[in-house]
């Protein structure tokens, strides 16, 4: 039994000690720095931040939020347009098996887009910091924190074991589109607080989130069962199935609790 445990531990260590799939190393785009970033994020928003704000009044961060939200809209839209161009206009990928060889002329662009997407996921963490500074703790939900932490961790893990972009460009293009819409809502809501409850398209952002993960779930299923010759790591495909399933369940529950259950309550 001891021998079996030792063998299992050795196998796990071998997995994490293997050389990265892509030889080009970019700052922070590795599992360990990403883990440290997420650890600090969790400590700040769940412990250090609330402790710091305990004896303080909420800060007025409206101007900072306006700048941040507008920047996020522009960055996410830029990434979406570029990804859409290379995926559907230039057709760099075979959509049945989205892999670019290392000598492909668009490989450098793929790395740049993947790295920009990763930096964007780190910047996403700032919106939780605004919640802390405003003492709006009810918005720091399990879904919110889990989603942000997961998105920061996902890119370095995929790049380490699989490489940049490729099959996971689908996740990227869907995510930046949804976030462009989401931050546009945040910008308008911060610019005109009196209109916040009148912005009819708020609930459709959650619907977009759910559709996003349905597509990712279907992509992974189709790759595993209908295109097994596609040279992508099957464990990552199973992980995509598990993660997209958990996100569909959590966003579905949020939508039900926020828009269906509340609406069905008697006046």
List keywords for this structure.
mainly alpha, globular
**Total domain modules:** 1
Beta-strand fraction estimate: under 5%
Helix amount, in percent?
Answer: over 70%
Largest sheet: none
Q: Mean of residue pLDDT? A: 88
Verbal overview:
It contains nine helices and no strands. Helix content is 72%, strand content 0%. It is globular and about 55 Å long. The protein has helices spanning 2-17, 31-53, 62-89, 107-124, 126-133, 142-161, 169-191, 202-226, 234-264. It has one domain (28-261). With 267 residues, the protein is mainly alpha-helical. α3 (62-89) packs antiparallel against α7 (169-191), α4 (107-124) packs antiparallel against α6 (142-161) and α8 (202-226) runs antiparallel to α9 (234-264).
Topology, element by element:
Blueprint: H1 2-17, H2 31-53, H3 62-89, H4 107-124, H5 126-133, H6 142-161, H7 169-191, H8 202-226, H9 234-264
Helix pairs in contact: 2-5, 2-6, 3-4, 3-7, 4-6, 7-8, 8-9
Condensed summary:
This protein has 267 residues and is mainly alpha-helical. It has helices at residues 2-17, 31-53, 62-89, 107-124, 126-133, 142-161, 169-191, 202-226, 234-264. The radius of gyration is 20 Å and the shape is globular.
């Amino acid at each position: 039994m001891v021998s079996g445990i030792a063998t299992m531990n050795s196998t796990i260590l071998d997995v994490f000690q293997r050389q990265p799939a892509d030889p080009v190393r970019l700052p922070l785009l590795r599992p360990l720095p990403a883990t440290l970033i997420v650890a600090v994020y969790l400590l700040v928003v769940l412990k250090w931040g609330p402790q710091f704000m305990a004896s303080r009044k909420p800060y007025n961060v409206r101007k900072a939020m306006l700048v941040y939200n507008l920047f996020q809209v522009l960055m996410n839209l830029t990434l979406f347009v570029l990804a859409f161009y290379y995926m559907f206009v230039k057709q760099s990928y075979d959509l049945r098996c989205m892999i670019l060889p290392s000598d492909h002329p668009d490989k450098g662009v793929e790395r740049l887009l993947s790295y920009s997407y990763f930096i964007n996921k780190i910047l996403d963490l700032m919106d939780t910091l605004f919640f802390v500074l405003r003492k709006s703790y009810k918005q720091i939900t399990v879904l919110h924190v889990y989603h942000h932490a997961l998105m920061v961790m996902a890119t370095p893990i995929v790049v380490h074991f699989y490489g940049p972009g490729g099959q996971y460009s689908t996740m990227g293009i869907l995510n930046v589109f949804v976030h462009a819409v989401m931050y546009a809502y945040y910008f308008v809501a911060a610019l005109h607080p009196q209109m916040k409850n009148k912005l009819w398209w708020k609930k459709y952002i959650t619907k977009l989130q759910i559709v996003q993960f349905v597509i990712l779930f279907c992509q992974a299923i189709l790759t595993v069962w209908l295109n097994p010759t596609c040279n992508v790591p099957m464990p990552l495909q199973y992980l995509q199935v598990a993660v997209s399933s958990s996100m569909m369940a959590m966003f579905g529950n949020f939508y039900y609790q926020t828009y269906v259950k509340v609406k069905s309550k008697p006046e």
